[in-house]
Every structure is written in structure tokens, then in C-alpha cells.
From TrEMBL:
<keyword id="KW-0460">Magnesium</keyword>
<comment type="function">
    <text>Catalyzes the formation of CDP-2,3-bis-(O-geranylgeranyl)-sn-glycerol (CDP-archaeol) from 2,3-bis-(O-geranylgeranyl)-sn-glycerol 1-phosphate (DGGGP) and CTP. This reaction is the third ether-bond-formation step in the biosynthesis of archaeal membrane lipids.</text>
</comment>
<dbReference type="GO" id="GO:0005886">
    <property type="term" value="C:plasma membrane"/>
</dbReference>
<keyword id="KW-1133">Transmembrane helix</keyword>
<keyword id="KW-0443">Lipid metabolism</keyword>
<feature type="transmembrane region" description="Helical">
    <location>
        <begin position="85"/>
        <end position="107"/>
    </location>
</feature>
<protein>
    <recommendedName>
        <fullName>CDP-archaeol synthase</fullName>
        <ecNumber>2.7.7.67</ecNumber>
    </recommendedName>
</protein>
<dbReference type="InterPro" id="IPR032690">
    <property type="entry name" value="CarS"/>
</dbReference>
<keyword id="KW-1208">Phospholipid metabolism</keyword>
<feature type="transmembrane region" description="Helical">
    <location>
        <begin position="58"/>
        <end position="79"/>
    </location>
</feature>
<comment type="similarity">
    <text>Belongs to the CDP-archaeol synthase family.</text>
</comment>
<feature type="transmembrane region" description="Helical">
    <location>
        <begin position="150"/>
        <end position="173"/>
    </location>
</feature>
<feature type="transmembrane region" description="Helical">
    <location>
        <begin position="119"/>
        <end position="138"/>
    </location>
</feature>
<keyword id="KW-0472">Membrane</keyword>
<dbReference type="GO" id="GO:0046474">
    <property type="term" value="P:glycerophospholipid biosynthetic process"/>
</dbReference>
<keyword id="KW-0444">Lipid biosynthesis</keyword>
<keyword id="KW-1003">Cell membrane</keyword>
Length: 180
């Protein structure tokens, strides 16, 4: 059955999905790279800020704690055993997502792409790959129990779709400068 897999994948990844969107709303202020350049281009660029990263990470962690509070009734309502998040796992998912996005900006600058330029596939999966890697390191037993191979497949298929929909939506609402 695909329903429980989708429910579990979406629920377990929410603390990794929300940080990048929170960063878009909170962004601004000092860039992480302090304006520094490396090999003729910015290290990261003005789109990766301390404030966006901190607020994004915090939002993901707070969301995970909120999900913990409603996990039991939500599980009962849909008949799926939804997982709760220990603090280290919550932090790994949220901060890992932010780091994946920052790493992608580093690669974009190295490949001559200006701030805001699209980098298909990398844009849609950077944050998921690093968030998953981080949570598997930080809370291995939990990650192995939640992210079974079939849940992982659902995450890798579902994330690009959600990413495109959210970013086109944020662009249409005037919250984002580009629809990706
Ligand atoms: N943002 C931030 N800090 C982050 C990530 C995002 O402040 N760590 C904010 C910035 O205002 C950024 C906006 O969210 O401009 C959109 O994020 P994103 O699309 O990831 O950045 P881009 O501006 O497109 O820059 P890049 O080309 O480096 O991805
Ligand atoms: K990005
Ligand atoms: Mg962008």
C-alpha cells in the first residue's frame, strides 16, 4: 500500500522540508561568506545568510516538536504509526537541509552560476540528501526504522514534486525572486 508510505515519508521529512521555506521568509542580513570570493566567484553568495540559516534550522526543530505533540492522535486518525523525533534527529533533519542548500550554492558559484540561477536536480534534492545523511549518522537506529528502502524511494520521488510546487507557489505569492 502506497498511502502509509507517503504519509510516513511526508511526516518524517517535514522537519527537513520547512527550513528552506522559513529561510526564504527570514532571509537577509549578513551573508555567511562575509562577501568573500574564491577563485573568481563568491564562496556562497548573498543568498545564504546567518539569519536565514538560523531561523530555518530553528523552525524545523520547533516543527518536529510540534509534530511529536500530535503524533498519537494523527496516527490514530489515519491508521499509520507516525514516528516522533528525538531532539538530535530533529536538529539533524533541519540543519542538514540547510547545509545541503548551502553546499549547492557553493557548487553553483564554482560552476559560474550567479545567485538565483537554477541548477536542476541539485536544487530539488540537495537538502534531502544531506538531511537524510545527517539523520542516519546522528540517530542511526531511528533512521533505519523510519526510512525503510520503500519510504526512501517515496522521499526521492515526492521531494522534487513538492519542491517545484512550493517554489512556484512562493514565486506567485511574491515571496521568492525565482520560481525554483
Ligand atoms: N536564504 C537565506 N539563508 C539561507 C537560505 C536562503 O537567507 N541559508 C534566503 C535568501 O534571502 C535567499 C532566499 O532565501 O535569497 C532564497 O533561497 P535560495 O533560492 O536557496 O537562494 P538564492 O538567492 O537562489 O541563491 P543561490 O543561487 O545561492 O541558491
Ligand atoms: K536553493
Ligand atoms: Mg534560488
Amino acid at each position: 500500500m502506497i498511502g502509509p508510505l507517503v504519509a510516513t515519508a511526508f511526516w518524517a521529512m517535514l522537519p527537513a522540508y520547512v527550513p528552506n521555506n522559513a529561510a526564504v521568509l527570514a532571509g537577509g542580513g549578513r551573508p555567511i561568506d562575509g562577501g568573500r570570493e574564491w577563485r573568481g566567484a563568491r564562496l556562497l553568495g548573498d543568498g545564504k545568510t546567518w539569519r536565514g540559516t538560523a531561523v530555518g534550522t530553528l523552525t524545523g526543530v520547533v516543527l518536529a516538536l510540534a509534530l511529536n505533540a500530535v503524533a498519537a492522535p494523527a496516527s490514530a486518525a489515519i491508521g499509520v504509526d507516525l514516528p516522533t523525533f528525538a531532539l538530535p534527529a530533529a536538529f539533524a533533519l533541519a540543519f542538514g537541509a540547510m547545509c545541503g542548500d548551502i553546499g549547492a550554492s557553493f557548487l553553483k558559484r564554482r560552476s559560474g552560476r550567479e545567485r538565483g540561477a537554477a541548477f536542476p536536480v541539485l536544487d530539488q534534492l540537495d537538502f534531502v540528501v544531506v538531511a537524510l545523511a545527517a539523520v542516519f549518522v546522528v540517530d542511526t537506529d531511528w533512521a533505519l526504522a523510519v526510512f525503510t528502502p520503500s519510504v526512501l524511494v517515496v522521499v526521492l520521488v515526492m521531494t522534487p514534486v513538492l519542491h517545484v510546487v512550493t517554489n512556484v507557489g512562493a514565486y506567485a505569492l511574491g515571496l521568492k525572486n525565482e520560481p525554483w
